[in-house]
Amino acid sequence: MFFSSGSFGESPFSSRNEYSSSRASTSVSKSESSGTYSYLNGSDGIENRWNNNTLVTPSRRVSIGNTSVINSNSRGENSNRMQRMCLPVNIAMILRSLESNPTAFKIFERRISSVTLIGWITHREILASRMIFRVSDGTGGIDARFDIDSETFGEEINSYLDDLREGTIVRLVGQVVPGKADISSYISCYTIMKITEMKEYAYYHQIEVAYVANQFQQEISGEEESNSKEGNEYLSPYNISDKINHGGKQENDDFDLHLIESIKVPDDIIDHIHKTVYKTLSYEISCLKSEEKKSIGVKKDHIIKLLKPYHEPGTVLSAISDLESKYAVIYETMDGHYCVL
């Protein structure tokens, strides 16, 4: 249950721009007349709140009405991928996640590409190419960075940054960067918007966070129940046998390395075992029938079992670790499941 962060790509000079004054105002008026919980009901409810895909803005500047969007300038092609998965959170959720796993940002057992949160600026420092600031939301505080391009925007960016003073309530959209050595964790922002409607902070964002948390919790509970019924067995598209042949190797009835020969591997991966593991994982994911299962990925134990006739389990495990941390071509989705980037 991720939101498209393109839905947050509106003008940073207001909380919701023209989208706020037209469509969102309908939802506000309903809440005022029939109670806050009407926000969750009807065609203007929370599930439709972020479904305006015309506002997707992977580029740095997009015209919307009479205003414009200013996004961080150092995202390049990755911004489009990052903006496909955006989770409404509060700062306490981020801090708890980094406490339990300091090297990777996960919430609800999943790696999150980007987050959106609302808080107020408690301190800021403007440098030549970025603004460094700290934001709090009542549940905690975290550092944030926003890259700027004064050469492109000139006085416009100066006016925009001057509006983001200490005490200003803002919505951030960005990527959580875990801390290393003496550098603390921070949010690398690609959009900052000033919030002018207190309802946005006091009601709507809090409801969004609670709603998504509830949806994920239901999904996790459903997966746990399903795994319990299936005995935690991974269903392979072919048979895997535990028989031992005369050469002392395990025999897999249908799987062999010829199946993965045609799969392309990134150019920087040159080691044979790394190539084999990458191809095997890619092939296994392609064999999964549903998009939901493909998004969860394949268990590393399954890959180890498939390649046991050819490589030692420790070697395969080490290759999986290298592909994730060194080459960054695969990533862990949840509980030892891996997907290919």
Automatic annotation (TrEMBL):
<dbReference type="Pfam" id="PF01336">
    <property type="entry name" value="tRNA_anti-codon"/>
</dbReference>
<dbReference type="InterPro" id="IPR012340">
    <property type="entry name" value="NA-bd_OB-fold"/>
</dbReference>
<dbReference type="InterPro" id="IPR004365">
    <property type="entry name" value="NA-bd_OB_tRNA"/>
</dbReference>
<keyword id="KW-0238">DNA-binding</keyword>
<dbReference type="GO" id="GO:0005634">
    <property type="term" value="C:nucleus"/>
</dbReference>
<keyword id="KW-0539">Nucleus</keyword>
<feature type="domain" description="OB">
    <location>
        <begin position="115"/>
        <end position="182"/>
    </location>
</feature>
<dbReference type="InterPro" id="IPR040260">
    <property type="entry name" value="RFA2-like"/>
</dbReference>
<protein>
    <recommendedName>
        <fullName>OB domain-containing protein</fullName>
    </recommendedName>
</protein>
<feature type="region of interest" description="Disordered">
    <location>
        <begin position="1"/>
        <end position="35"/>
    </location>
</feature>
<dbReference type="GO" id="GO:0003677">
    <property type="term" value="F:DNA binding"/>
</dbReference>
